[in-house]
From TrEMBL:
One of its GO terms (biological process) is error-free translesion synthesis. It holds the Pfam family DUF525. PROSITE patterns: APAG. Residues 3-127 form the ApaG domain. The lineage of its organism: Bacteria, Pseudomonadati, Pseudomonadota, Gammaproteobacteria, Chromatiales. InterPro entries: ApaG_domain, ApaG_sf, Uncharacterised_ApaG. Coiled coil: none annotated. This is Protein ApaG.
Length: 127
């Protein structure tokens, strides 16, 4: 028998390279990422804040912390999802992001929802 953790948030990520906003000659690579946050736990929970580590191909790390996501603090009942799109730019054609969302359940329990590392990569072009 499989049991569901009381506090379980699943995070799914889709990425897209925005060639129209990027300038490879100027070391500017722009990416969009679409995140789906799904409450797989048994308690409703609200997203309070976010914490990102954004790493470029040279190993430089940018740390980002802030309240909510895209100006919102989504409240998710068990089985509900919230989807949003945001973006970032890098000085290299490849990089990665990872982080966490800080959550609070209706019973007052605070917990982190892990965002596993994902790759940001501009497509290679043939010359």
């Amino acid at each position: 028998m499989t049991t569901t953790p009381d506090y379980a948030i699943e995070v799914d990520v889709e990425t897209e390279y925005l060639s129209g906003e990027s300038d490879p000659a100027g070391n500017r690579y722009v990416f969009a990422y679409t995140i789906t946050i799904l409450n797989r736990g048994v308690h409703p929970a609200r997203l309070l804040s976010r914490h990102w580590l954004i790493t470029d191909a040279d190993g430089a790390i940018q740390e980002v912390r802030g309240p909510g996501v895209v100006g919102e603090h989504p409240y998710l009942r068990p089985g509900e999802a919230f989807r949003y799109t945001s973006g970032t730019q890098l000085p290299t054609a490849v990089g990665s992001m990872q982080g966490s969302y800080q959550m609070i359940a209706d019973d007052g329990t605070r917990f982190d929802a892990t965002i596993e590392p994902f790759v940001l990569a501009a497509p290679r072009t043939l010359h």
